[in-house]
Design brief:
The complex is a heterodimer of chains A (112) and B (117). By secondary structure, chain A is mostly beta strands. Chain A is 0% helix and 56% strand. Chain A contains no helices and eleven strands. In chain A, strands 2, 4, 5, 9, 10 and 11 form a six-stranded mixed sheet that branches. Chain A has a five-stranded antiparallel sheet with strand order 1-3-8-7-6, with no helix packed on it. The termini of chain A are far apart. Chain B starts with a strand and ends with a strand. Classes of the chains: A mainly beta (112), B mainly beta (117). At the A-B interface, strand 4, strand 5, strand 9 and strand 10 of A face strand 5 and strand 10 of B.
């Protein structure tokens, strides 16, 4: 079982819709969770992070964490064509210093 | 005012050669990382240094040798390059979170695209 799993996609949503990106992780010692966006040919850039169960909102983005189900998701409201990118879920496991384990990413396509 | 910079941006070389990639950050961070992103876009950590001390060393061939002359710089030297080393190598930096603290945000450089022929 992979440590961090994401559906590779592509996930296609129409402009203006809500895009829902999911991530599951295997280690119950995971304590912090990050969503990065990576445009083709570019470096990953942080969208947001979440540490506690529940929802965390930042503009059009909402991260949701459920530690009991070992599940973290990213919702993008009012999706725009500029949101088309690969979204990487990353997990930090307690006791591993600053090590981040990444999922393979979900490619999002926002269509006009 | 680039936060995390890497040189070179592109590197094309022959099998068996030795090459180096350099990374510098001006964010005042104390921890730096090297990641490898393969052709399937899987991003995997290779090494991490905190204040010039190696703290993460994943299962990486010993042909790869990182060096951190100071906390703002982290270089990666690769000996005897192989075809499988072709990938994008990203440098990143963050503040050190410690083993009991929550993870700190990592900021990535632009990447070095290495092609071994």
């Amino acid at each position: 079982q992979k440590e961090v799993e994401q559906n590779s996609g592509p996930l296609s949503v129409p402009e203006g819709a809500i895009a829902s990106l999911n991530c599951t992780y295997s280690d119950r010692g995971s304590q912090s969770f990050f969503w990065y966006r990576q445009y083709s040919g570019k470096s990953p850039e942080l969208i947001m992070f979440i540490y506690s169960n529940g929802d965390k909102e930042d503009g059009r983005f909402t991260a949701q964490l459920n530690k009991a189900s070992q599940y973290v998701s990213l919702l993008i409201r009012d999706s725009q064509p500029s949101d088309s990118a690969t979204y990487l879920c990353a997990v930090n496991i307690r006791g591993t210093a600053s090590k981040l384990t990444f999922g393979t990413g979900t490619r999002l396509q926002v269509t006009l | 005012d680039t936060a995390v910079s890497q040189t070179p941006k592109y590197l094309v070389t022959q099998m068996g050669n030795d090459k180096s990639i350099k990374c510098e950050q001006n964010l005042g961070h104390d921890t730096m990382y090297w990641y490898k992103q393969d052709s399937k876009k899987f991003l995997k950590i290779m090494f991490s240094y905190n204040n010039k001390e190696l703290i993460i060393n994943e299962t990486v061939p010993n042909r790869f040798s990182p060096k951190s002359p100071d906390k703002a710089h982290l270089n990666l030297h690769i000996n005897s390059l192989e075809l499988g080393d072709s990938a994008v190598y990203f440098c990143a930096s963050s503040l050190f979170a410690g083993t009991t603290a929550l993870g700190e945000t990592q900021y990535f450089g632009p990447g070095t695209r290495l092609l071994v022929l």
